[in-house]
Amino acid sequence: MISLLRRRVSVVLLWICRWLQYALGRVWGTSFSVPHSLVTSPCNSGYGLYERLPEEWKTKEVNRIYHSGDGSGTMITVQTSTHTFYVDLGRLSECSEYFRALSQSSMRETTERRILLDHIPSSVFHALLEFCFRNDFAVTQEELGEHIQVGTYLLAETFVSRCLLALSSVLTPDTCLSYLDLARNICSTEMETTVFSYLSRNLLELPHVNRRLPSEDKTLLIRLRGQGDLRLCSVRKENLTSWKDLETEAARHLFAQDGSETTSDWRPITELPFIADKWCFTTVVLLNYLYLIGGYRQQARRGWEFKMASFRYNPFTNTWVSIAPLIKHRRHFSAVPCNGSIYAVGGWYLGSLVTPDSSTALYTAVERYDPWDDRWTFVSSLPMTDFQFTMSLSHDLPLATSMGPCLYVLGNIQRTGEKLLLQYDTRQDLWSELLPTLTRADADLPSLYFLGATDQLFVIGGNNSENVITSFCVESGQWGQNITFKLELGVI
């Protein structure tokens, strides 16, 4: 029963392949041009481009005969566009579901052992046979599209996968959309995935290309960038030591943790993209890119000055690029991703690394960064008209996070010590206060350490004797129950 079902499925599959022959023949009638260069086969032990031998198969029939094993297998004749090949059907069936279906059917081509594929270029079929019988892959970049089409038509999965591997290494901004169109014309989801993988790895490096894609494709690219294993990274956001300190050079790297959090070591994965001994940056992750936003000290005509600078790190390509700097010269500010943009909030003037005094006040101006246009613009300022937040050197100020389309800011009011939450709606460019405030009677939190969000906002702070965790529900407008815990010396 199973054998009968298998034969029937094979016949249906073969019929579908025959039907596709006409449709794909029409597709092949259109030209597909990409720059000329050669793709090296991994079987080639040397470096550089694969040098193709003279194509003797075109003139010598013996070079178009493909046996397998001891040569006792069933041989068939395959007529392609200009040349005839004599091939072991059993081995070819292992490489191509098209020929497997033929071998298990009772169609005339099988009984006569002669298959007519005159719509398939002989050179492409020869490359397929070389790969299947001799594990030899040598395809020029300009021929990749045609080889993928034929491999897809013949259901030669392994051959197509090898072509796509070669394609992934030669895609360029000029050719990727042409290959994407081809993938959709021949209904090749594998080829489409290869192109999408290239576009997602270089999402913001190719804004002019991605702008030409429909919105659903852009959404898919963003989702693809978020796939894969997560890595915990560490970077020194501020450095005050000089070149004389040995730690300065070691600190000029981005570190990542290998393995689990408890057993692995930290290792440097890339050097920071500037040369300086003193710097102050804020970090933020958006679209799986790491952003360094701030500035560093450099030599000037008269002494030293701080240069505003921003950088973007792509973990897929392990590369840094310089991006537009902030409009305001900020230090110790918060940067938060929200609704596809980055918002810079608070901080104070970055002109030197001196400690702020009682006259130092937070910036109320808020800046929004558009990653697609690489541009900072001002949005509505913090509504701090009749109060100020207290200052601290321990972290970025004020604490900020995002949840949904809204930005949330938390600070200690200088005059009363109350904790005030501010909400910014990115859709309306509007700030509002979230009441009630958290008073000293509610929680003894002279110091604030952390503000984060899941389905509600979480606050971590402390005093001289204990640390406190509390929460705030935006929907109900209520503060949650406090959780306190004490830290013993040397124990976290």
From TrEMBL:
Residues 72-141 form the BTB domain. Keywords: Kelch repeat, Repeat, Signal. Residues 1-25 form the signal peptide. Pfam families: BTB (PF00651), Kelch_1 (PF01344). InterPro entries: BTB/POZ_dom, Kelch-BTB_domain-containing, Kelch-typ_b-propeller, Kelch_1, SKP1/BTB/POZ_sf. It comes from the Eukaryota. This is BTB domain-containing protein. It comes from Esox lucius.
